[in-house]
Amino acid sequence: MSLLHAVLGFVAIQPMTGYELGKAFSTTAAHFWPADQSQLYRTLHRAEADGLVESTTVEQATRPDRRLYTLLEPGREALEAWLASPLEPDNSREPFLLRLFFAASLGTSGVIELLDQRRSAAVELLTTLDALASSAPRKTSLAIQLQYATLESGRAHARAEITWLDELRAQLANHKESAR
Amino acid sequence: MSLLHAVLGFVAIQPMTGYELGKAFSTTAAHFWPADQSQLYRTLHRAEADGLVESTTVEQATRPDRRLYTLLEPGREALEAWLASPLEPDNSREPFLLRLFFAASLGTSGVIELLDQRRSAAVELLTTLDALASSAPRKTSLAIQLQYATLESGRAHARAEITWLDELRAQLANHKESAR
DNA sequence: TCCGAATATAGGACAAGTCCTATATGGCGT
DNA sequence: ACGCCATATAGGACTTGTCCTATATTCGGA
């Protein structure tokens, strides 16, 4: 349901085509809201059918025609209603934790390998986010500040993840040693 | 797809009924893997159809019959294969970040309210996890250690979330003040 | 010269998860 | 006395998201 709201949010900033929306997602929102291309276009169709947005076809000579989507008043209302609605309880899935939970049969050394793999991925994510953060624009408007804040959130959680992994790893390694 | 693996993981520890599985999820894995009751039973049916588990009906006088599921060899292999498979890239959705990203139209004070709501939820989660952690058994086996580690992960991330929220809140409040 | 990437939109098939309801009974609180 | 909760399993309807493919052209690199 939320992809619709994200679409409305982007279109509220500026009228866009589906393709541009895809770009906007992958460059600015990918780390907290991956958007499938197919799903994006379907959501746009539905939003238009529901009268939330309006599209105008822009013909192009060589490229396929572009459909430029504009936010309509009902769409803006839906967006504001979403922003003001109570926060839904957070029930996110953590595939890594699920695996770790059941990983005992890998043995201590196997689990440590798992932790190292996860650590690599977390470090990679963190460096990506660091790069994005350092190339971010000056925080002039509230909107820009908030967009930057989502980056900061990702960095904070990535750092927390790495710290947790290191502590767990040390604990397991230590335990293994003393068990010798 | 992962619910299947979680089911195999639990049944590997001990043969269980669907109902007991539901309990196991909600008491030990709820914070990183919510399991819908309907989905659970469907997954069990499929796992049995696929020859991964086997069920025996235990008749009861007053209560409905219980179907006790046992892990079969192919199921154990599937579980081990999953544990040894490469980590999938992490693409989790963060509805709160999505909302924050587009929340500028709420104004600084509206955003601060949003942050406060989120903070309350995070604090509540943290205290729940703290309680679970303090009532956790002694970390004797590797399995118990890993299960405890998932709790620690939740706590680490909850604390990171609270810290991030506090910093952002201070920054926004400060900005608002200096803009007067 | 050929292959892939970028531009631009769209549909089909499928997987996974959510929400609601149904069935049947016993115990507990108010 | 009445309703709700726990026990125990299951199906229907629906939403959301994923993966793959199709279409059509242009440009750049190996």
Automatic annotation (TrEMBL), chains A, B:
Residues 93-172 form the Transcription regulator PadR C-terminal domain. Residues 7-80 form the Transcription regulator PadR N-terminal domain. InterPro entries: Tscrpt_reg_PadR_C, Tscrpt_reg_PadR_N, WH-like_DNA-bd_sf, WH_DNA-bd_sf. PANTHER family: NEGATIVE TRANSCRIPTION REGULATOR PADR, TRANSCRIPTIONAL REGULATOR YQJI. This is PadR family transcriptional regulator. It comes from Salinibacterium amurskyense.
